[in-house]
Amino acid sequence: MLAAFIGFEVIRRVSPLLHTPLMSLTNALDAIAVVGAIVLVGEHKSTLSFVFGFLAVVAATSNVVGGFLITDRMLKMFKSSRPTKP
Amino acid sequence: MNTDLAGNQQIIEITYLIASVLFILSLKWMSSPATAQRGVRAGEIGMVLAIAGTLLHHGIVDYKWIAIALVLGSGIGIPLGMVHMTAVPQRTALSHAFGAFCVTLVGTAEFYLRTPNVPRFMMAVLSMEVILGSLTFTGSLMAAGKLQEILPQRPLTYKGQNFVNLSLLAASVAIAVYLVINPGAHQLFPVMIAVPLLFGVLMIVPIGGADMPTVISLLNSYAGLSAAAMGFVVDSKLLIIAGALDGSSGLILSIIMSKAMNRSFTNVLFGAFGQVQPSAVAGLEEKTVRSATPEEAAGILAAANKVVIVPGYGMAVAQAQHKVRELYDALTKRGVEVRFAIHPVAGRMPGHMNVLLAEADIPYDRLIEMDDINGDFPQTDVALVIGANDVTNPAARTDTGSPIFGMPILDVDKARTVMVIKRSMSPGFAGIDNPLYYLDKTLMLFGDAKAFVNSIVHELSGNTH
After folding, report:
1. Between residues 28 and 57 of chain A, which touch chain B (CB distance below 8 Å)?
2. pLDDT band per the 50, 70, 90 thresholds, residue B274
3. pLDDT of B146-158, one tens digit each?
4. If you placed Cys at B243, which of A31, B190, B227, B455 could pair as Cys (CB 3.0 to 4.6 Å)?
5. Which residues of B are catalytic?
6. Structural domain spans, chain B
7. What is the pTM of this model?
8. DSSP letters for B87-138
9. For residue B462, is pLDDT > 60?
10. Coil, strand, or helix at residue B310?
11. Average per-residue pLDDT in chain B?
């Protein structure tokens, strides 16, 4: 609940300029669900939990990697005119 | 041995705590373009720490398959991170689907590991996790399909649609409640997943492209909430925090988007989008428009002092952002002040236009939000609209009968001259006629956005040499 509140406070201040990178970043962070999936695979308690966990790790990892990568690429594109054109 | 285990546990807790702090800082730094890259670094470090910490988990016996899954996931993730900027909306929808897929799978696995002894609170959050997860999964796949134009973009509506959708949602909630009371009834569990899967599909069917920014934000929020619910199931504070951050960010964005389209938030929550009927087309009379050639357009632009460019989805479709940049350069060189007016819902996801124009190297301090630029239109010599329609429609201000009445718009009609690049006179996505096009001061520039901007640029540079 506290996190949701902090989230609200922090995100309300994000400029609309950065809404798309914000979404891809939160998406990558959300993929922290991978930790739960890793435990499922690692513990190998049943075939079902192993297979589902495996697929979940694949899905989440692709979000982590893809999410950070694209956020970074997007942010590199945002340039201010001030430093380049004095 | 035991102390060793406890020590490991402590290390895991500490890495999770640091990761949580980094995640929050990461979002905080996203608030300004100057610090945003630092934000991404913080997120990355947090993520690596959390994964490394998890690998210390004492129950883990099988590292081989974890490694394979991580490599495989990275193999899928890298191409997804390298897509073209115009494909960002569908990529985002797809990653919502992946996230939701992951959460649903984990939830299902956890249920079958624990059944029939699932405590009530656990069962309640578990149900929330898989219901939100599975509807987000199919919903996001549908949204991605529509954005990629694999599926028809036109909204599909039928009678009783909302009733069907709401009953499906109610059914899954009812099953969830039953399972909370009788956690042993595990044969119902697959039904609780199947029903929201179907709901996810049906929820997106009636949604048109113009509503996509709201829908993507909403799916983002659902994905976050389901991850937060999973955090309660696997007892991970880190996951609860990350999920809540994602959930609230999606929620805020969808509130901003629905405000920008003058839809009530409950309207959005229940998925009742795409209700706008193309009724206005019926009143189509023979009205005259004035059109102009690239040479004339170039002449007017060159003579102007202040130009505001209004980009929309049409610019994205035509991939015209780089040509627009050339136009910006050509005009700036002549001493014309050029700015861009960005409507919050222009494009197919929040902030879509900003990313495209940034990709084309247009400085972000030239991109002006709707509220900040609307007051400047009366002093603007030329408003050049490129592939935007509904967000410039003055009927939203004046015509109470218009389906978009009340929607905040960019007041381009107040500029001294308006030029609209458009492929044809066909009405926009919502099927609403735009009175802007029939004003005396409006010049229609018919053609493909990219080709047309190119010929204007050609004219402008031809005149200088």
Report:
1. 28-46, 48-50, 52-57
2. very low
3. 888 887 767 677 7
4. B227
5. 390
6. 1-82, 87-275, 283-464
7. 0.84
8. GHHHHHHHHHHHHHHHHHHHHHHHHHHHTT---HHHHHHHHHHHHHHHHHHH
9. yes
10. strand
11. 84
- Cβ contact, residue pair A36, B239, below 8 Å: yes
Peptide bond into B116 cis (omega under 30): yes
CATH of domain B283-464: 3.40.50.1220
Option in B24, B39, B224 nearest A30 (CB): B224
Ramachandran area for residue B159 (φ above 0: left; ψ -120 to 50: alpha; else beta)? beta
Report pLDDT digits (tens) over B216-267: 888 999 999 999 999 998 888 888 988 888 888 888 888 888 888 777 666 6
Helix (H, G, I), strand (E, B) or coil at B211: helix
Q: What number is the average pLDDT over the span A17-23?
A: 84
pLDDT at position A81, please? 58
Mutate: best of A12, A32, A65, partner B, most B CBs <10 A: A32
pLDDT tens column, A37-83? 888 888 888 888 889 999 999 999 999 999 999 888 888 887 765 54
Residue A82 has which token pair? Answer: 């001030």
Q: Which 3 state secondary structure label does DSSP give B422? A: strand
Distance in angstroms (rounded) separating the CA atoms of residues B436 and B318: 22
Residue B227 to residue B241: CA distance in whole angstroms: 9
Nearest chain B residue to A4 by CA: give it. Answer: B244
Write the residue in A22, A42, A72 that is nearest to B60 by C-beta. A42
User: Cβ contacts (< 8 Å) between A66 and chain B: which residues?
Assistant: 76-81, 91, 95
The domain limits of chain A are 18-84
Contact A56 B102 (CB under 8 A): yes
- B176-211 confidence digits (pLDDT tens): 888 888 877 888 888 888 999 998 888 888 777 677
